[in-house]
């Protein structure tokens, strides 16, 4: 137990500022806490009173959720506890406890407690009229003074009254506490400039924007997922990666993962032993060891270098073997992600797919898949090993050399990583602008070339060239900023590396001259440091790539969060098809809340009957088709097939009994045979050709140069409209459904082609329950029942003759179409297919 002595040691005085080649500890440890406590207690108290009296409590939705703010609080609490622990440790030890040490600990703890209270208050209360953002001047000044005070310790480097010599246990503990304070105050000052726990903009501005957004139905809360930090919820994002790194159900792949991790650990050990054996070689050469001993050491060193590789594990045997073994795990990850997401997208509703760009979704899949592999590679095999190497190096140098070498490595690594991250973040805006300008230049070029004819019409070649040249110049300006900032980053990294190497080399050389170290130790230090810095050269690239990969991964996992709109019930059974009776009973439906598309729709289609749906655009005809196929669920009423509610049966079994021929038939970019076979993928070639005969397209296909093997092109663009419709009909015939849905299947065709297609459709619909959506009334004259829809309701129903006799809405539509039939026929005879990509029969090719 220490005895409390005089305030200053050895007859010293607070008035003595400089003693024994440095600052007087009594003066320093008295002045610093007094200044900090005065600032935090008096100025901080005034500030808190202003917040309490004139401020207002911030709404929780405006307070950003930040882990960096939590780090600020933790550091403040840690520093406060450090002061208390320092006093307790000195009081519990032997010797005399000077009064200034007790005052320093108590006053400093009080000052940091006031600062922590102010930090807590600033996050919860705000002066509404304050137009600035960030921490108060009091808090920033407190952190700046605290950091500056810790830097004053360097002034007393040569003083025997300070702990720089690290000779005794007491000095080592005091040095450790100072190092903790130095790092803590530096971090608090840096984080204080960023103010992560406070709103980014003035509070009054946020309130005004929130009120305006609420008026438009767009609350501010949750508005900016893009503005959030990429590193927010880092732990959660990493946990999302774990299932894709650990292959469930495959013991072989799991063993490969464990083996790769084991090899990763072996690389870390090899990186330590390579410079050690290099040192041993130098020492043995210097000491004149025997050839046998030297040869054994050299062989071990060369073996380690072979395992490590020339680039500190970048191209060695162990690294290459790990990369080779990881290929199967990477393929597993690719397959698992893509298949899961592809299956999930097919489970989503038609509403979701109609509201999304297919290209955007595919880009999210591609980028998301590659981002997961990149993140696993960068984090597991680059970032973590690099950090592990740094920690191992600090521990090794501190234990095998002395604490100064560990400190040099720590400071250099800390500065290197910190400045790399800061400069990389700063460069991000330049890279973003460069990408924007690059996209702009490419879009201008593509737009100009796609409109080649228009450019020629107006003699605008020079204008287009100048426009493209201007876009290139803007891109190059942004590119220069990117490359210049990269050069700055490289020079900064090089300066830190050089400074650390210089400091360590000089210190090591000094110990060699003092006969405390051997020459090999100097070689070891230089080799180890250079080896340590090699992977760090890529740290900025890794950081940026991880940042981009997190963004791509978030976009992909956002797709996984999309919920199915149409789901099978838990106990849903298969549709038990009997005759094909279709019933709509009091059906209501709307795509957007408040705007009903269908209102109280009721009708019945008896087995084998044909019912036609007609009416103006937007009346709900196609919606009825989609509801029956269960692309959507009804919001009122019920749809039954053979007395079974279709919402109670499995979607797969329902759709197996229904065939659809849409207005716009889209074919897969495959041959014609496989496009027809899509109706029933297990069908034989003979069944495919029989379906083509029934659709009256078999002879036409045989006239093509490659027959059924003809490639139809993207979306079937190499076929004419009539040919595509016949392929769709053949596909439906092959499926052999009991219920047929024709959604304006011939409305996009000319009159002659339509008449030919109608004959094929009639064959398909024979003895099948059929619902037809028709635009041209002449195609549904023979329907068993015609439903006339108007504004989502059934306005009229009956056969063609009955509706004509009524003289209602259907009669008006019929008369208008009859009046326009002559002009339509004339225009049909003049319609030609301008596309040169349409396939021609074999006979025409030989002419």
From TrEMBL:
Limits of the ABC transmembrane type-1 domain: 258-548
Composition-biased stretches (Low complexity): 816-828
UniProt cross-references to CDD domains, sorted A to Z: ABC_6TM_ABCB6, ABCC_ATM1_transporter
Keywords: ATP-binding, Cell membrane, Disulfide bond, Endoplasmic reticulum, Endosome, Golgi apparatus, Lysosome, Membrane, Mitochondrion, Mitochondrion outer membrane, Nucleotide-binding, Secreted, Translocase, Transmembrane, Transmembrane helix, Transport
Enzyme class per UniProt: translocase
Subcellular location, principal: membrane
TM region positions: 27-49, 69-89, 101-120, 140-163, 175-193, 255-274, 294-318, 375-397, 403-424, 495-513, 525-543
MF annotations from Gene Ontology: ABC-type heme transporter activity; ATP binding; ATP hydrolysis activity; heme binding
Protein name: ATP-binding cassette sub-family B member 6
Name of encoding gene: Abcb6
């Amino acid at each position: 137990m220490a005895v409390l002595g005089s305030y200053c040691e050895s007859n010293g005085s607070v008035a003595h500022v400089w003693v024994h080649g440095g600052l007087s500890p009594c003066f320093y440890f008295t002045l610093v806490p007094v200044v900090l406590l005065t600032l935090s207690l008096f100025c901080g108290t005034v500030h808190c009173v202003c917040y309490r009296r004139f401020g207002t409590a911030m709404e929780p939705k405006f307070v950003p959720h930040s882990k960096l703010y939590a780090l600020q609080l933790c550091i403040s609490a840690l520093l406060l506890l450090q002061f208390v622990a320092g006093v307790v440790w000195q009081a519990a030890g032997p010797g005399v406890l000077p009064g200034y040490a007790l005052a320093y600990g108590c006053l400093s703890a009080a000052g940091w407690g006031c600062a922590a209270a102010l930090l807590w208050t600033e996050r919860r209360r705000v002066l509404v009229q304050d137009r600035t953002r960030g921490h108060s001047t009091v808090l920033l000044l407190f952190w700046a003074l605290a950091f500056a005070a810790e830097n004053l310790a360097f002034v007393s480097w040569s003083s025997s009254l300070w702990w720089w010599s690290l000779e005794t246990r007491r000095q080592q503990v005091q040095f450790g506490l100072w190092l903790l304070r130095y790092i803590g105050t530096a971090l608090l000052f840096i984080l204080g400039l960023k103010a992560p726990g406070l709103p980014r903009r003035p509070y009054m501005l946020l309130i005004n924007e929130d009120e305006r957004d609420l008026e438009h139905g767009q609350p501010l809360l949750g508005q900016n997922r893009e503005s959030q930090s990429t590193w927010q919820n880092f732990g959660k994002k990493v946990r999302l990666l774990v299932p894709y790194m650990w292959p469930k159900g495959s013991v072989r792949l799991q063993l490969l993962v464990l083996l790769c991790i084991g090899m990763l650990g072996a690389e870390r050990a090899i990186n330590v032993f390579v410079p050690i054996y290099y040192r041993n070689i130098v020492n043995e050469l210097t000491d004149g060891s025997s050839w046998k001993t030297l040869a054994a050491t050299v062989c071990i060193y060369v073996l380690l270098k072979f395992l490590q590789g020339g680039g500190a594990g970048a191209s060695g045997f162990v690294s290459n073997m790990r990369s080779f073994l990881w290929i199967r795990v990477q393929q597993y990850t690719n397959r698992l992600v893509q298949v899961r997401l592809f299956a999930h997208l097919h489970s989503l509703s038609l509403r979701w797919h109609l509201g999304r760009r297919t290209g955007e979704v595919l880009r999210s899949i591609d980028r998301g898949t590659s981002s997961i592999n990149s993140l696993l590679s960068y984090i597991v095999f680059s970032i973590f090993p690099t950090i592990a190497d740094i920690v191992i190096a600090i521990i090794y140098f501190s234990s095998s050399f002395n604490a100064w070498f560990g400190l040099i490595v720590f400071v250099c690594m800390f500065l290197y990583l910190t400045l790399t991250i800061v400069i990389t973040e700063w460069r991000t805006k330049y890279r973003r602008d460069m990408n924007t300008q690059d996209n702009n230049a490419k879009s201008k070029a593509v737009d100009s070339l796609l409109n080649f004819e228009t450019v020629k019409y107006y003699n605008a070649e020079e204008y287009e060239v100048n426009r493209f040249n201007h876009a290139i110049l803007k891109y190059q300006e942004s590119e220069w900023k990117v490359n210049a900032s990269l050069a700055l980053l490289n020079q900064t990294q090089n300066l830190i590396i050089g400074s650390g190497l210089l400091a360590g080399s000089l210190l090591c050389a000094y110990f060699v001259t003092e006969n405390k170290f051997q020459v090999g130790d100097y070689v070891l230090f230089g080799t180890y440091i250079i080896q340590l810095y090699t992977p760090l050269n890529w740290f900025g690239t890794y950081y940026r790539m991880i940042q981009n990969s997190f963004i791509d991964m978030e976009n992909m996992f956002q797709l996984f969060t999309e919920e199915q709109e149409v789901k099978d019930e838990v106990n849903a059974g298969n549709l038990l098809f009997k005759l094909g009776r279709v019933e709509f009973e009091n059906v209501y439906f709307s795509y957007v809340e408040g705007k009903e598309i269908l209102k109280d729709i009721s009708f019945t289609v008896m087995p084998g009957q044909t019912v036609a749906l007609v009416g103006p655009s937007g009346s709900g005809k196609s919606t009825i088709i989609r509801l029956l196929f269960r692309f959507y669920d009804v919001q009122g009423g019920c749809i039954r097939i053979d007395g079974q509610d279709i919402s109670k049966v499995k979607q797969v079994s329902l759709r197996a009994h229904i065939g659809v021929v849409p207005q716009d038939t889209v074919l897969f970019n495959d041959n014609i045979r496989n496009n027809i076979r899509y109706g029933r993928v297990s069908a034989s070639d003979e069944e495919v050709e029989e379906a083509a005969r029934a659709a009256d397209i078999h002879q036409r296909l045989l006239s093509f140069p490659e027959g059924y093997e003809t490639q139809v092109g993207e979306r079937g663009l190499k076929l004419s409209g009539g040919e595509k419709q016949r392929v769709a009909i053949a596909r439906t015939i092959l499926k052999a459904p009991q219920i047929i849905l024709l959604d304006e299947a011939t409305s996009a065709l000319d009159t002659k082609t339509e008449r030919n297609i109608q004959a094929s459709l009639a064959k398909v619909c024979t003895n099948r329950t059929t619902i037809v959506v028709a635009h041209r009334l002449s195609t549904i004259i023979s329907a068993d029942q015609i439903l006339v829809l108007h504004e989502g309701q059934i306005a009229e129903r009956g056969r063609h003759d009955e509706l004509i006799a009524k003289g209602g809405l259907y009669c008006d539509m019929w008369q208008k179409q009859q009046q326009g039939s002559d002009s339509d026929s004339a225009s049909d005879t003049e319609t030609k297919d301008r596309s040169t990509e349409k396939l021609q029969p074999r006979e025409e090719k030989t002419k």
